[in-house]
Amino acid sequence: MAQTLICHPGIGPDVEGIALVASDDFSARYDLDRIKGVFSRPAHKLFGEDYRERVLVLNNVKGGVASAWMLNEMASRNVKPAAFVFNRVNPILAQGAALAGLPLVDRFADGDVTTLIRNGERIRVRPSEGQVILLDRP
Q: What one-character DSSP code corresponds to residue 114?
């Protein structure tokens, strides 16, 4: 039986993928190499990790309006994550995710999502239901 985490209802379609988890905050502008598809800021805990088609599980969002159009640009080239799972997200990144068609959820009832989900774990994100299902859990 899989474990289900409850969160605020999000945006985008249901998706299943492998979690890429860190307790760091996130900026599409400063943390990513949007051409190579890897985390590029040396100070980020995911530095060097390939984020393409992974479910990014991170703490909070940082940065401004550039993130919104960057997500859409990444999606247009298919160099994008499968989904975003955050403790907290700001309206700018939510708008960018919606524009890019990327699933996004935040505000978990169970606590800090960066400690609830394991790096490399297979998960299903169900934004409209406000759920993240941990598929590898007994």
A: H
